[in-house]
Specification:
Elements lengths: L2 H23 L3 H7 L4 H29 L3 H15 L8 H28 L6 H29 L4 H12 L3 H4 L24 H16 L4 H12 L6 H31 L1 H21 L3 H29 L5 H29 L2 H22 L1
Helix pairs in contact: 1-5, 1-6, 1-7, 3-5, 3-14, 4-5, 4-7, 5-14, 6-11, 6-13, 9-14, 9-15, 10-11, 11-12, 11-13, 12-13, 12-15, 14-15
Length: about 375
């Protein structure tokens, strides 16, 4: 196995373990926030703010990795920051604590993601780049499956409360750090003349247009917490006790199973059929998922919708990154990926706020119809303009 493949595999294993940690936390986080006195608006605020902080930092970390010719230090520092931040979440006693700690945990993601994606792109030829990102997404989401299953087991069968599960999650995050050490930075000279350019004008025209369309989609692609919250509210009317919390966690497991199972096939499809076709399919499917959540009224329907939600992520997540990598100049690949993630982050914060306000003031149907509308607009723009 050559260095190229070792990098991809090692980074995939790191993401696997990190997501075991993160996804033990994520399905219970919206219910934990509600238990601490938070509302739907607070859920949207925390979800949107955390994702925005992460994404906004990525243009800087991407630029720094291009300028210094090194990706690995930023990757390691990012994973370390997240692991340390997770240790404090179990100590929260009011939702305001989560409002502070969740964005701090996402700072680590902001530091690592663009340099890591650039390192993956550097380590794969263009003709298999979709597969490389598909493999990484599959290992990432595979960890998510295991993490959400562990959360379900610890809560439902062992009877541990949310705080203990969050503590176990934080401990697991530290096991990923030693695996980063053998990762090799590809030989690259520092680019001391490179100037930070957050403006889209620094990128090729086609890439600028693509990022703008992806940003429109991100405006409607609100935090996963609302999907879990909808399931929690629905099943709280049917059950009492532990089942009210266990079923939403189980549905989140189904989401991650679908995401994991389809990530590599979707990456291969984007290599063979083209990024645009796969991305269009993902955008359209998200429209249907949002529409479905306005109509869901039975357990089988919720199961189907969470599976389709996972398929949507498999179609969109890795394909968007590969698409950006394809169109970015080699000397600006980290910066381009960082700009992409930052644009998404700038859209994520208002997306969460709008979704939360609509939910609280009108009802959950308004939130999901908002997601349907924005993703349909992104589909039309991608179809006609790119």
């Amino acid at each position: 196995m050559n260095r190229l493949n070792i990098n991809i595999v090692l980074l995939g294993v790191v993401s696997f373990l990190t997501d075991v940690s993160s996804e033990m936390m994520m399905p219970i986080l919206p219910m934990f926030i509600v238990a601490l006195g938070g509302t739907a608006f607070v859920v949207g605020l925390i979800g949107g703010l955390g994702d925005s902080v992460s994404s906004i930092l990525q243009v800087f970390s991407g630029y720094w990795s291009d300028k210094h010719g090194k990706r690995k230090p930023f990757v390691f520092l990012g994973y370390l920051t997240s692991a340390i931040s997770k240790l404090f979440l179990p100590l929260s006693v009011v939702w305001q604590h989560v409002l502070i700690l969740r964005p701090l945990e996402r700072v680590g993601k902001g530091l690592r993601t663009a340099p890591r994606d650039a390192l993956i792109a550097d380590s794969a030829e263009a003709k298999i780049r979709g597969l490389a990102f598909g493999i990484h997404r599959a290992m990432d989401s595979g960890g998510a499956v295991l993490g959400s299953i562990l959360a379900l087991i610890l809560f439902l069968f062992l009877g541990l409360d949310f705080r203990i599960i969050l503590l176990v999650s934080a401990i697991i995050a530290f096991f990923a750090l030693p695996i980063i050490l053998p990762v090799k930075d590809l030989v690259k000279e520092p680019n001391k003349k490179l100037v930070l350019q957050i403006s889209l004008k620094a990128l090729p025209k086609k890439l600028r247009l693509l990022i703008l369309i992806m940003t429109v989609f991100a405006l409607g692609n609100f935090t996963y917490m609302f999907f879990v919250l909808r399931a929690y509210e629905f099943f709280s009317e049917l059950y009492v006790g532990a089942m009210v919390f266990a079923i939403p966690i189980l549905l989140y497991v189904f989401f991650n199973l679908a995401y994991t199972f389809f990530s590599i096939p979707c990456g291969i499809l984007s290599d063979k059929l083209g990024r645009k076709k796969v991305l269009l399919t993902g955008y359209l499917l998200f429209c249907l998922v949002c529409l479905g959540f306005t109509l869901a009224s039975s357990t089988p329907m919720f199961i189907l919708l969470f599976l389709l939600y996972g398929l949507t992520y498999a179609l969109v997540d890795g394909t968007q990154r590969a698409f950006i990598s394809d169109l970015a100049p080699q000397e600006l690949k980290g910066t381009a990926l960082g700009t992409f993630h930052t644009a998404i982050g700038l859209a994520t914060f208002p997306s969460g706020l709008i979704a939360g306000i609509l939910w609280q003031c009108i009802g959950f149907n308004a939130t999901f119809f908002y997601g349907f509308t924005l993703s349909l607009i992104a589909f039309i723009l991608l179809k006609t303009l790119v």
